[in-house]
């Protein structure tokens, strides 16, 4: 204790030691603080953005466990294709009759793993949690623009979750046509049993999911545009908010296209139309459908699908920027370039979708265009990486659990992002398309990275969410096991991919060309299952700390952003008094001449004469 | 009983972990490190970053080198060799970027770990280096795009006029192959004419269909361009021939194509690999249902003479009595394939942009 720095001593004192502007007492706002609210309205049908964020987070965690469990099941099959897995019979019943996983159920597992992870965990769980939690707190608003719509957003997500979860227990199995649900496979129950009731429920669930996303997205955008506190110009927004803002715009513009694709698919499935079906002879019967195009569906799907991967990764990028700056005790390098690259990525993300379709029979000229646009996206992504590295350079780094995960994020984003340069090249994609090289690529760059962003965010903002700290030691163990585990799973997967192993294969033993990596697949499976179980350390830490964790101080990380000026556990309305005004950008860390190594955004220049830069002196009034 | 024991052991292990965890908290409260922000663990984590880089980097390098020979499927097509070169060139470029950025990340993490009394360097931006590291990747990308674009246009461009034509049709869960026969014209097919004996849905009222023949594996001659026309009759499939670096979806209702030139015969490849059982394989690479993982078709690359001999020895569909009978019946049932074949043929040519005929005599001169 005695060896403590002046800096960390600061944090114990909280806001009292940082200069704070005078706030007026406001009786009316204290009304929000009443504690006699019925539990149903406080915890269940809450309109408070912080409670809704917690609801999204815990539902997302539930889904992550399910999604991870499914992947462990199919990794068992891929690692030990000859094994007899009788002991799974109580869990899987007829799907593993005789200890052999049913090949159709294997496809259902990969389909549901993808759907759950991409949509329910990394879209709703990540963006839903942190956009909700941080937007009002960091822009200085009492709540979202519409608390009611925000509540609906969660409950539509909940409804969608219930439907998707129930579909796992159907007699004919859940959807099994891959998470991209390409018709005709997804349209014809004759083609695969999962395309019966399972696919119907998938589509219905996704419709509610899209509604949830749109309600949330409109709210996020409106709140950021209209409800920023006094002084909070767009050029003073923390990068988290910029990322959530652009993510919400992507969602609003792209999810309706998935909705339309789903709707047309429903028509093809149920009402005999031929949007995506043509010239099909199946199960001894020639279908009447003519003139439809399966490739049209792919265009519609990826018009959402590609922005979707940025919807997943951009919130993580924003949070990582924030966490890196805070814990390196340095301003984020190139704040404007960071915003510019986010905008660049957002714009480009809408014009690269067909790189998923180079070899689908699409006109090769389109392939050339999309290759060009796709590889350009490496430039803003590169800028972000370089800026993160420059942020660490000559910092004074504190390795909190959040910081570890943020550094892990950068590492995984580099590793996964670079192979995108191979896959975005149409020529090389001829060989790599749909192989394990693709699987390794996107699991690193959007799967694991986004998960690392999510973990970083939870560790960092947990004190604000629950008023207590998570256990740091468990956090360290969780990080190192996960970080090493992820690399052990996905690095070797590239080798398997370069060798041409196709994805979504129940077993490769039938092919000479794919016979050489049985050992490596065993290794990958073992690493994946161990990494999955390591996540229970996090889950334990999370729930334990909610109730028994060390009590948080008001600003435990000595951070500059507005959420840390609220009480330790902010009530409804966030600030008991007036909302603080903002005077400066969010990254005044280690400013030369300043008394502390951070100056919160709500401290006017007049109180920091010693550290003001030349142009800031004019603002000193 | 064993299950119960395992369960019991697991529960006890969890209890032990739980107790250790509590103990750890209590000791840290006692020693005062519980509320201390930056201490020993910061140094350990910083060191682990460095250890991770060194050990992880070495493990990566070792495993990559160790598996390298297994990673590269042998190449047997002209464009495959060019692609391979481009792939490894790109790998080197991204490998360099990977090594530099990862090294900086971990070295910075270690080097700039917290030190008491030091303050971070306030360094908010620098236009010059930002411009540099925007432009350099842009130039590298431009070069990669240009190389990729040139190769892509060549590979996906029209097949040479004298290419051998064959058709592969995907169905749940196997591949069907047909050749155009002596007239070198693929006859008209119609999915409504498909039945148990007429897998392809041959429309035998089209004269050019009569000499078509089907095969149980693909035969192609070495050193001659081959154009594969691709169809599907039910769901999406993808023709994936890893040794030839060929991949194209099979789309119901939309014929696709891919052409390539094989460079090594099956026998030559067997000798080269020292594996007398080696076969070129075609795999399905687009999820298509229960049997997706088992849609295999062998490809045989022959010496041109052998290919011509094989070609001449095949039986045309018109000699298949079952098929002829089945066609007659289907044609009566559906009213299809009766004199309307001329129009259908014109449509098929327009649809597939069929290349003009190369007579077998010309093929014999390969």
From TrEMBL, chain A:
Protein name (record): Cytochrome c oxidase subunit I
Primary location recorded for the protein, binned into one broad class: membrane
High-level lineage: Bacteria, Pseudomonadati, Bacteroidota, Cytophagia, Cytophagales
Source species of the chain: Hymenobacter ginkgonis
Domain Cytochrome oxidase subunit I profile: 35-583
Segments crossing the lipid bilayer: 56-78, 105-135, 156-182, 202-221, 241-267, 300-321, 333-353, 365-390, 402-424, 436-462, 474-495, 523-544
Region entry Disordered, spans: 1-29
Family to which the UniProt record says this protein belongs: Belongs to the heme-copper respiratory oxidase family.
Sequence ranges of Polar residues compositional bias: 1-12
GO cellular component terms given for this protein: membrane
Presence of the UniProt keyword Iron in the record: yes
Pfam families: COX1
Localization per record: Membrane
From TrEMBL, chain B:
UniProt domain Cytochrome oxidase subunit II copper A binding: residue ranges: 161-313
Subcellular location, record wording: Cell membrane; Membrane
SUPFAM superfamilies registered for this protein in UniProt: Cupredoxins, Cytochrome c oxidase subunit II-like, transmembrane region
Protein name (Swiss-Prot/TrEMBL): Cytochrome c oxidase subunit 2
Function noted in UniProt: Subunits I and II form the functional core of the enzyme complex. Electrons originating in cytochrome c are transferred via heme a and Cu(A) to the binuclear center formed by heme a3 and Cu(B).
Chain residue ranges for the region called Disordered: 334-366
Source species of the chain: Hymenobacter ginkgonis
Requisite cofactors: Cu cation
């Amino acid at each position: 204790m005695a060896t403590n720095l002046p800096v960390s001593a600061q944090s114990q004192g909280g806001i009292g030691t940082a200069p704070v502007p005078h706030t007026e007492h406001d009786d009316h706002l204290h009304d929000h603080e009443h504690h006699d609210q019925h539990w149903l309205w406080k915890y269940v049908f809450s309109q408070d953005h912080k409670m809704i964020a917690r609801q999204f987070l815990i539902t997302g965690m539930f889904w992550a466990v399910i999604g991870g469990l499914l992947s462990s099941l199919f990794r068992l099959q891929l690692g030990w294709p000859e094994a007899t897995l009788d002991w799974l019979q109580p869990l899987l019943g007829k799907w593993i009759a005789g200890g052999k996983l049913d090949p159709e159920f294997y496809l259902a597992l990969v389909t549901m793993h993808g759907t759950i992870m991409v949509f329910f965990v990394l879209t709703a769980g990540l963006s839903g949690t942190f956009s909700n939690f941080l937007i009002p707190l960091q822009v200085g608003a009492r709540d979202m623009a519409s608390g009611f719509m925000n509540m609906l957003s969660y409950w539509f997500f909940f409804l969608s979750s219930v439907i998707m979860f129930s579909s796992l227990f159907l007699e004919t199995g859940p959807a099994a046509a891959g998470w991209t649900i390409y018709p005709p496979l997804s349209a014809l129950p004759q083609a695969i049993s999962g395309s019966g009731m399972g696919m119907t429920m998938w589509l219905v669930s996704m419709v509610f999911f899209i509604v949830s996303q749109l309600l949330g997205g409109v709210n996020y955008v409106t709140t950021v545009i209209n409800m920023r506190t006094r002084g909070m110009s767009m050029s003073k927004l923390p990068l988290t908010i910029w990322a959530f803002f652009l993510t919400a715009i992507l969602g609003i513009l792209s999810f309706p296209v998935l909705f339309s694709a789903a709707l047309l698919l429903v028509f093809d499935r149920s009402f005999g139309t031929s949007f995506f079906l043509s010239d099909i002879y199946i199960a001894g019967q020639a279908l009447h459908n003519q003139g439809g195009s399966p490739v049209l569906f792919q265009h519609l799907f990826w018009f959402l699908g590609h922005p979707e991967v940025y919807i997943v990764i951009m919130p993580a990028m924003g949070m990582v920027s924030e966490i890196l700056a805070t814990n390196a005790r340095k301003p984020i390098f190139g704040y404007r370039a960071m915003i510019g690259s986010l905008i660049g990525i957002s714009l480009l993300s809408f014009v690269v979708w067909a790189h998923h379709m180079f070899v689908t029979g699409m006109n090769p000229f389109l392939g050339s265009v999309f290759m060009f646009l796709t590889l350009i996206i490496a430039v803003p992504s590169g800028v972000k990486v370089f800026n993160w590295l420059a942020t660490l350079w000559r910092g004074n780094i504190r390795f909190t659990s959040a910081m570890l995960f943020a550094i892990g994020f950068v590492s995984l984003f580099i590793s996964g992002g670079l192979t995108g340069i191979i896959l975005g090249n149409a020529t090389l994609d001829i060989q790599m398309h749909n192989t394990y090289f693709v699987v390794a690529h996107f699991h690193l760059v959007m799967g694991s990275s986004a998960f690392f962003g999510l973990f970083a965010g939870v560790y960092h903002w947990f004190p604000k969410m629950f008023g207590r700290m998570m256990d740091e030691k468990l956090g360290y163990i969780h990080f190192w096991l996960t970080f090493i585990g992820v690399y052990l799973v996905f690095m070797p997967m590239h080798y398997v991919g370069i060798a041409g192993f196709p994805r979504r294969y129940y077993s490769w033993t039938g092919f000479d060309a794919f016979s050489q990596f049985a050992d490596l697949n065993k290794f990958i499976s073992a690493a994946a299952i161990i990494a999955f179980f390591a996540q229970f350390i996090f889950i334990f830490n999370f729930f334990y700390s909610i109730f028994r964790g060390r009590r948080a101080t008001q600003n435990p990380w000595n951070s500059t952003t507005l959420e840390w000026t609220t009480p330790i556990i902010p009530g409804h309305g966030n600030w008991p008094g007036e909302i603080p005004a903002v005077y400066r950008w969010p990254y005044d860390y280690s400013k030369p001449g300043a008394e502390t190594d951070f100056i919160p955004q709500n401290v006017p220049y007049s109180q920091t004469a010693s550290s003001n830069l030349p142009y800031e002196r004019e603002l000193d009034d | 009983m064993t299950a119960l024991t395992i369960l019991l052991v697991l529960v006890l292990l969890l209890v032990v972990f739980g107790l250790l965890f509590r103990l750890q908290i209590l000791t840290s409260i006692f020693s005062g490190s519980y509320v201390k922000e930056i201490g020993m663990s910061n140094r350990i984590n910083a060191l682990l970053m460095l250890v991770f880089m060194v050990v992880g980097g070495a493990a990566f390098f070792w495993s990559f080198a160790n598996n390298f020979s297994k990673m590269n499927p042998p190449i047997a097509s002209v464009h495959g060799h060019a692609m391979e070169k481009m792939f490894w060139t790109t790998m080197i470029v991204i490998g360099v970027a990977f090594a530099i950025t990862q090294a900086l990340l971990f070295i910075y993490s270690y080097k700039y770990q917290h030190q008491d009394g030091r303050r971070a360097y306030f360094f908010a931006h620098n236009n010059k280096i930002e411009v540099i590291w925007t432009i350099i990747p842009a130039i590298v990308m431009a070069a990669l795009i240009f190389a990729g674009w040139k190769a892509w246009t060549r590979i996906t461009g029209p097949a040479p006029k004298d290419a051998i034509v064959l058709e592969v049709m995907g169905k749940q869960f196997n591949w069907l192959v047909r050749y155009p026969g002596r007239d070198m014209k693929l006859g008209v097919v119609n999915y409504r004419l498909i039945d148990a004996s007429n897998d392809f849905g041959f429309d035998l009222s089209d004269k050019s269909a009569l000499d078509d023949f089907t095969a149980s594996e693909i035969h192609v001659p070495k050193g001659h361009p081959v154009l594969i026309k691709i169809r599907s009759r039910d769901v999406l499939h993808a023709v994936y021939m890893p040794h030839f670096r060929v991949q194209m979806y099979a789309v119901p209702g939309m014929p696709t194509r891919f052409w390539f030139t094989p460079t090594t015969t099956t026998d030559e490849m067997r000798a080269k690999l020292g594996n007398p059982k080696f076969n070129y394989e075609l795999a399905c690479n687009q999820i298509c249902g229960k049997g997706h993982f088992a849609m295999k078709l062998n490809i045989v690359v022959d010496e041109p003479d052998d290919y011509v001999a094989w070609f001449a020895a095949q039986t045309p569909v018109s000699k298949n009595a079952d098929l002829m009978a089945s066609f007659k019946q289907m044609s009566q049932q559906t009213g299809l394939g009766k004199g309307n074949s001329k129009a259908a043929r014109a449509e098929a040519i327009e649809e597939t942009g069929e290349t003009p005929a190369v007579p077998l005599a010309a093929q014999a001169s390969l």
